[in-house]
Design goal:
The chain is of the alpha+beta class. The chain is built from four helices and six strands. The N and C termini lie far apart (53 Å).
């Protein structure tokens, strides 16, 4: 059910090309982008421009994922790891070199087609960390700006003390 809701799988017809890529083998040098193969959402192809043998594809995406895109960051489209550029409003572009075009289903994409999107894994972790920890960090900094006699910490573990010590000023009263 989740796959049908988040991906373009339900729109495929018999004979449509798909991309299948083997998982990266760990133990060697990491090269390229880190992706997991999980579809986060779909995007719609809104423009295809031939650029002397390479192509620029522009996609319209759900703006709720805007925080996960950065210029020259990574994105996975239909299982192909690519670099994002020209991000504006709810659109982004990717450049497709001849090899990628000839060996993937990008050659079959048309304006209006839906593609599967996996956003950058590190970006997703950072976004989650920011959402879940920003209030805690702000609260601790507010406390640290008060005179030391006004602040009482009720710590439940040494891990909490370690977290607080990371944001204490080097020369402050601790």
């Amino acid at each position: 059910k989740e796959t049908l809701e988040k991906s373009s799988l339900g729109a495929l017809k018999k004979g449509d090309p798909i991309n299948i890529e083997r998982a990266m083998k760990m133990g060697g040098r990491l090269d390229g982008h880190m992706v997991q193969g999980h579809v986060d959402d779909t995007a719609k192809c809104v423009s295809i421009k031939d650029e002397n043998g390479s192509w620029i594809f522009e996609f319209e995406f759900n703006q709720k994922f805007e925080a996960l895109l950065i210029e020259k960051g990574s994105i996975c489209i239909n299982g192909i790891s690519l670099t994002v550029f020209n991000i504006h409003a709810n659109r982004f572009s990717v450049a497709i070199i001849p090899y990628t075009y000839e060996n993937t289903n990008f050659q079959a994409l048309r304006i209006g087609d839906l593609v599967n999107i996996e956003y950058d894994m590190i970006g997703k972790y950072l976004n989650r960390f920011k959402r879940t920890n920003v209030q805690k960090i702000v609260s601790l900094k507010d406390l640290l700006n008060k005179p030391i006699q006004e602040v009482t910490f009720n710590l439940k573990s040494s891990k909490e003390l370690d977290e607080i010590s990371k944001i204490l000023p080097e020369n402050g009263n601790t």
